[in-house]
C-alpha cells in the first residue's frame, strides 16, 4: 500500500479557475469554521507527495488496502474482445466502497483537532456508511443527512449507519432552515446532493464541536483517493506485467462521475504520463439523470442550494435543476466540480452518459460473467467499458481497460429488481 498521497494539482492542463466568494459570512469563512484545518491546507499543498499519517495507514491496511485488481477473463470471453479488462475492487472494503479511503483520513484529522462529531451529507449512502464507520474508529459521533429518495430506496444503508450509532436524517430536512425552505417551496422534493450539502453545513455551523466532512468535490478528497491510481499502476506492472499507455494501444481508465472523487483518484496519478505522450484515455461515465459533463453548460454555480459553498466554474445543469429520483443517488449532482470540469474543458477527459437501465444491465452482465455485483453508480463505468471494448475490436486494437469498481451492490438490489426484473 502506498504510504504517501500524490498531489497532482501541478499536473493539471491549466490553472484552476478562480472561485467567486461573496456573502456574509463568506464561504471561505464558513469552511474555516466547519472543516478541520489540515484538510483546508490539503486543498493546495506545497509538496508533491504527502505522507499518510501512520494511524490512517494502519486503519486502511486493516480495512483491506491495497484492494485487488481483478482481470475479467470471463467477461472478455463473453464479449469476444481482444481488450484486457481489469476491475479495481473497491467494493471489497468493509463499508462497501472507495469512500472509506478519505473518510478514515478526514475522521483522523477531525479527532486530532479535538472535534467530537462528524457531520456530512450522503447521496446513495456509501459515503455516509464510510463516515459512520470512520467515526467509530476514532471515537466520534456521526450525524448524516441522506438524500430522501435514496433513503427510501436503500433503507439498509440507513440501518448500517444506525448500527454504528450514527444519526441519519432525510434531506431536505425539517431540522434546518434551508431544508424547511426547500420543503416549503417543493413539499415532495426528492432531495439531491445540493440539498443534503446545505443541510449538513448549516447543521455543522450550529455545533462548534462538529466537523463537516465532504465526500467529494474538494481537492483534499481527490488527494486521499490517489491511492486508487497509485495502487493500480503498481499492480498492473508487478502482478500482471502490464505497462499503461503503450503507444497505439489506446489504454483506458474509466470511472463513474458524480462529485469526481473516484474518477480523480483513478486518473490523477496518470495525468503527467498522458501529458508526456502516453497513449492513455480518461473516461467519465455519468448518469442521464444529471448529465452535466455531456449536456451541461460551463458556468459559475454552487454545489449546494443554501449558499454555503463558493461559486465555482464547472459544467452545470443549474441550481434550479431537480434530478429525477432514480437509483443512482451518487451521481445526482447538478453541478460538476471545478477540477473535473477543467479536465473536460481542456480535452484531457472524455465523458459519456447512460440511463439507469443501461447501467444496471451492464451490472447484471458483470454478475453473470465474473460473479461481482456492483452498485448502480459503478455500473455506469462498466457500461462505458463495454462500449470502449467494442470500438477497440472494430479497430483491431487490444487496449488495457481499467474499470473503477467503486462500490458493492448488495444494498442496491431493490433498484436492480425494480428496473430489470419488475419491468
From TrEMBL:
Record carries keyword Repeat: no
EC annotation from Swiss-Prot or TrEMBL: 4.2.1.20
Keyword Coiled coil: no
Record domain Tryptophan synthase beta chain-like PALP: where: 62-404
Family annotation (SUPFAM superfamilies): Tryptophan synthase beta subunit-like PLP-dependent enzymes (SSF53686)
Pathway terms, separated by semicolons: Amino-acid biosynthesis; L-tryptophan biosynthesis; L-tryptophan from chorismate: step 5/5
GO CC annotation terms, alphabetical: cytoplasm
Highest taxon of source: Bacteria
Required cofactor names: pyridoxal 5'-phosphate
Catalysed transformations (reactions): (1S,2R)-1-C-(indol-3-yl)glycerol 3-phosphate + L-serine = D-glyceraldehyde 3-phosphate + L-tryptophan + H2O
Molecular function via GO: L-serine hydro-lyase (adding indole, L-tryptophan-forming) activity; tryptophan synthase activity
Keywords: Amino-acid biosynthesis, Aromatic amino acid biosynthesis, Lyase, Pyridoxal phosphate, Tryptophan biosynthesis
One of the Pfam families matching this protein, by short name: PALP
Family, as annotated: Belongs to the TrpB family.
NCBIfam families listed in its UniProt record: PRK12391.1
Subunit comment: Tetramer of two alpha and two beta chains.
Entry protein name: tryptophan synthase
Lineage: Bacteria, Bacillati, Actinomycetota, Actinomycetes, Kitasatosporales
Amino acid at each position: 500500500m502506498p504510504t504517501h498521497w500524490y498531489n497532482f494539482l501541478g499536473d493539471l492542463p491549466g490553472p484552476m479557475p478562480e472561485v467567486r466568494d461573496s456573502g456574509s459570512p463568506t464561504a471561505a469563512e464558513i469552511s474555516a469554521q466547519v472543516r478541520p484545518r489540515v484538510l483546508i491546507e490539503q486543498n493546495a499543498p506545497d509538496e508533491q507527495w504527502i505522507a499518510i499519517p501512520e494511524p490512517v495507514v494502519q486503519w486502511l491496511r486493516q480495512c483491506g488496502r491495497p484492494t485487488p485488481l481483478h482481470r475479467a477473463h470471463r467477461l472478455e470471453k463473453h464479449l469476444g474482445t481482444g481488450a484486457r479488462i481489469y476491475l479495481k475492487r473497491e467494493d471489497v472494503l468493509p463499508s462497501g466502497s472507495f469512500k472509506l479511503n478519505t473518510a478514515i483520513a478526514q475522521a483522523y484529522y477531525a479527532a486530532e483537532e479535538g472535534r467530537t462529531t462528524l457531520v456530512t451529507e450522503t447521496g446513495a449512502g456509501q459515503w455516509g456508511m464510510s463516515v459512520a464507520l470512520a467515526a467509530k474508529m476514532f471515537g466520534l459521533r456521526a450525524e448524516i443527512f441522506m438524500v430522501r429518495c435514496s433513503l427510501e430506496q436503500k433503507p439498509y444503508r440507513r440501518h448500517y449507519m444506525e448500527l454504528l450509532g450514527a444519526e441519519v436524517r432525510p434531506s431536505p430536512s425539517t431540522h434546518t432552515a434551508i431544508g424547511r425552505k426547500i420543503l416549503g417551496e417543493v413539499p415532495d422534493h426528492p432531495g439531491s446532493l445540493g440539498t443534503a450539502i446545505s443541510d449538513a453545513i448549516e447543521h455543522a455551523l450550529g455545533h462548534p464541536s462538529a466537523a463537516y466532512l465532504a465526500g467529494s468535490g474538494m481537492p483534499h478528497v481527490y488527494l486521499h483517493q490517489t491511492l486508487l491510481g497509485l495502487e493500480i499502476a503498481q499492480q498492473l506492472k508487478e502482478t500482471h506485467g502490464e505497462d499503461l499507455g503503450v503507444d497505439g494501444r489506446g489504454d483506458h481508465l474509466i470511472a463513474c462521475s458524480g462529485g469526481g472523487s473516484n474518477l480523480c483518484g483513478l486518473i490523477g496519478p496518470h495525468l503527467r504520463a498522458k501529458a508526456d505522450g502516453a497513449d492513455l484515455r480518461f473516461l467519465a461515465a455519468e448518469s442521464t439523470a444529471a448529465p452535466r459533463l455531456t449536456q451541461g453548460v460551463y458556468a459559475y454555480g454552487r454545489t449546494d442550494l443554501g449558499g454555503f459553498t463558493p461559486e465555482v466554474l464547472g459544467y452545470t445543469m443549474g441550481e434550479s435543476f431537480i434530478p429525477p429520483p432514480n437509483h443512482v443517488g451518487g451521481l445526482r449532482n447538478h453541478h460538476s466540480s471545478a477540477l473535473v470540469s477543467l479536465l473536460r474543458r481542456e480535452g484531457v477527459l472524455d465523458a459519456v452518459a447512460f440511463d439507469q437501465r443501461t447501467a444496471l444491465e451492464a451490472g447484471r452482465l458483470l454478475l453473470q460473467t465474473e460473479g461481482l455485483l456492483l452498485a448502480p453508480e459503478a455500473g455506469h463505468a462498466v457500461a462505458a467499458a463495454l462500449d470502449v471494448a467494442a470500438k477497440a475490436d472494430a479497430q483491431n486494437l487490444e487496449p488495457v481497460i481499467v474499470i473503477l469498481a467503486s462500490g458493492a451492490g448488495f444494498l442496491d438490489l431493490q433498484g436492480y429488481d425494480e428496473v430489470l426484473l419488475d419491468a
